[in-house]
What does this fold into?
Amino acid sequence: MIFIDNQQDFLESILLERAARFTLDLSPAHSNADITIVLTDDAQLHELNRDYLGVDAPTDVLSFPASESDPETGSAYLGDILISVPRAAQQAQAAGHPVEAEVQLLVVHGVLHLLGYDHAEAEEKARMWAVQADVLERLGLGHIKIQDSE
It folds into this structure.
């Protein structure tokens, strides 16, 4: 199940569930895993980025892998994704596409991190960006590219 904690009155949560599901489908072992997507603001992302990653700056998306199982249902809980909707809106405006597309891109990016993808090294980044592009294409968002500010 995809849990969405919408703290920003973002109206298109069904699109986010779809983006998460399409991305989870890349890994058959995790296709039915539970995740939480928190739609929040720059202040919360800044605080978490500082406290957990040692980066004293806001960011657009953070992923926190959990790899736990619900003791009652046995379903896998993959982790949490937090997205700054105001930052996504700024990035969407700068890139010239709708904020709904930008937030979907950030969901795909966050789920890929929960699945173990990373972009710290050039080879990892090339692999992650290729998979990300494939998911965006399947979502009808092949024209959207993630900003390379990381």
